[in-house]
Amino acid sequence: MDKFKLRLYITGKTPKSERAIANLKEICEKELKGLYELQIIDVLESPQLAEDEKILATPTLIKDLPPPLKRIIGDLSNSDKVLLGLDLSPVLDNNQGKEDGR
Amino acid sequence: MNEIEEYKGIEKIETPGRRHGDEIRHRPYENTGIEKRVRYDQRGGIAGIEKIETGIEGFDMISEGGLPKGRTTLIAGTSGSAKTVFAVQFLSEGIIQKDEPGVFVTFEEPPEDIRKNVISLGWDVAKWEQEGKWVFVDASPVVGEDHVIAGEYDLGALLARIEYAVKKIGARRISMDSLGSVFARFSEAGLVRNELFKIAAAVKQIGVTAIITAERTQEYGDIARFGIEEFVADNVIILRNVLEAEKRRRTMEILKFRGTSHQKGEFPFTVVRNIGIVAIPLSGIELKQHSSTVRISSGNAELDKMCGGGFFRDSIILVSGATGCGKTMLSTGFAAEAAKNEQKALLLAFEESRKQLFRNATGWGIDFEKMEDDGILKVVCRYPEAEGLEDHLIIIKRVITEFKPHRVVVDSLSALERVSTIKGFREFVIALTSFIKHQEVAGLFTSTTGDLMGGSSVTEAHISTITDTIILLRYVEMFGEMRRGITALKMRGSMHDKDIREFNIDGEGMHIGKSFSNVTGILSGHPVFSAPEEVDRVRNLFKEA
Fold first, then answer.
1. Chain A contact probe: residue of B136, B142, B146, B147 with most A CBs at under 10 A
2. Helices marked H in A1-102 — which ranges?
3. At residue B399, what are phi and psi to the nearest 5 degrees?
4. Residue B33 has pLDDT above 80, yes or no
5. What pTM was estimated for this model as a whole?
């Protein structure tokens, strides 16, 4: 499996930011253990980086690798949507196992 | 609005010794870091809302001084109503005229498009960016990239970027163009509205003057889509681009300026190459022009005599008549007369080409070509249909300002009637006459009447009250022959000849002769002849009475 390169943009240490970081770490540990590289960028500290990437909403997760480039907006509490955004098949509850990729 | 009341308490405590223009800072809310500035006027009271001049021609007059300083103004308009031009021009004029840096937040067009689009308006955005006077916050959609929404979010990053950009260049002005597309990209309208409210509040807090543009779906209806006006409702300006009788007519209206005054109603405006938006403030025109008692010659000694010694130096003269009855000749003579006194004349022709005009003038012994070479005459020929009336007005104004003529001739004003609606034409005439009067030059307008004999035109109906002098040229049918009559209908501030006189045109020009004493009904177009005895009888009748 290809290595994932992820960037998470947040605006300050707000509860929403903290939630996004926690949710993302949980998903990554579960699905991509050892296969990902995560960078967290605080827009308040580095506004130019947000400008370069044209970030409007926060939190925003950008998946640089593997292609295609994807953006996931929100506190990542909806893990199915996050997996969809990362081009990983969503894991369904209990015994239903994995669904086929789209 | 409430701010004045809000500060009353503080003012009572701190008033002594404060002078006009003093500014104090205080923190109305404890532990917040929020700072309010209060300015004091001459009486030591709190000054009203200050305005900053936008530099947009005509707009500062309509708005009575510009946009409210440190506040956000909503510019709403339908698609194609020049919202983006207004937004760009607000920053451009700030840089050009006041050296005030600006931040442009674009939600719709990428910066590259904006740079290209405004080059034709004379604004070199790329250069200003290099000089650190202009910064884009690019919030335009990223092409080919979609996003997934997975949980709660806010637009904190956008706000952080705007604040960063403002700090980076010390911006005094912000334009945000246009909000509708933010709503198109994020489905949660309520959340987006709330976030934009935060941004508007933050911008106010920083103390920069901002404009936000927003779409409307119809020219007359809701202020803007998505209820945007609710959070920037302090100041609202509406730009319109109405289709009227197959012609587009742009107008702007200041719907409200909270806590400060402005002119009311719609004002026409146009977008001019190399200049941008130019508004035409009609009701802003004041009747304060001087009036001179110095007389100038019309170029015809007999006509001067009829007018009690010539036209006044800064008057507006209307020459009305049917086609071919001598209007162009009269105006040619009027323009040429300026040269004799080493004064400059401007001839604006909308009916004939340069060649025709020059040939005609030569026929009457006037050398226009030499006069132009000497720099005392300028002939501008344009097709009425070449531009809208607003553009004609702007062009005429510019030529007058640059050339500084002593006399202006418009031949004919009624030719311009057909390129506009009646309302638009009336506004044009008022704006043009008042501009000419302000320049303190003599203006001679010609107007063609529809009927060959008698009659009047729309032009006259609109202009007659503004003019100081009206000269009527009329055909008179007499015993199977067309003869010409001239009369001075009105001559403000002077005695004048009330007779209708006959005149002839020959190789040397116009010759005014005797009056038609035994003809009545010339002006109504139905001449009736009376025997001389009858005329005498009627005269005597009145004498006795």
1. B147
2. 15-31, 47-53, 79-85
3. -60, -45
4. no
5. 0.72
Q: Are B435 and B422 spatial neighbours (Cβ–Cβ below 8 Å)? A: no
Q: Measured on CA atoms in the order B4, B8, B14, B20, is the torsion positive or negative?
A: positive
Q: Which residues of B touch A (CB under 8 A)?
A: 137-140, 142, 145-161, 163-165, 182, 185-186
Q: Which amino acid is at B148?
A: V
ipTM of the complex: 0.84
B6 is catalytic: no
User: End-to-end CA distance of chain A, in Å?
Assistant: 17
**B226 against B199, higher pLDDT:** B199
Cα distance between residue B514 and residue B501, in whole Å:
5
H helix intervals, B189-300: 189-206
Q: Residues B114-127, buried b or exposed e (16+ Cβ, 10 A)?
A: bbeebeebebebee
Cβ count near B182 (within 10 Å) = 25
**Mean local confidence (pLDDT), B380-394:** 85
d(CA B423, CA B458): 11
Largest CA distance in chain A: 46
- Is B351 noted as a catalytic residue in this protein? yes
The Cβ of residue B195 has, within 10 Å, a number of other Cβ atoms equal to 21
Question: What sign for the dihedral angle of Cα B179, B183, B189, B190?
Answer: negative
Q: Would the pLDDT of B316 be above 60?
A: yes
Q: Do you find a cis peptide bond into A59, omega within 30 degrees of 0?
A: yes
Q: State the best of B152, B162, B176, B185 to mutate against chain A, taking most chain A CBs within 10 Å.
A: B152
Q: Copy the structure tokens of residue B532.
A: 């001389």
- Of A14, A50, A78, Cβ closest to residue B150: A78
Query: Which residues, at least 6 apart from A1, have a Cβ–Cβ distance to it below 8 Å?
Result: A35
Torsion on CA atoms B498, B500, B505, B509, rounded to nearest 10 = 0
Phi, psi of B485 (to 5 degrees): -125, 150
Contact B512, B486 (CB under 8 A): yes
- The pLDDT tens digits of the residues spanning A54-101 come to 888 889 988 888 888 888 888 888 888 888 888 776 555 444 444 444
Task: Summarize pLDDT for A34-43 with one digit per residue, the tens.
Answer: 888 889 999 9
More confident residue, B449 or B99: B99
Candidate from A72-86, B12-26, B206-220 with smallest mean pLDDT: B12-26
Among B185, B147, B150, residue whose Cα is nearest residue A90: B150
Cβ atoms of A61 and A6 closer than 8 Å: yes
Q: Does A102 contact chain B (CB < 8 Å)? A: no
Higher pLDDT, B217 or B253: B253
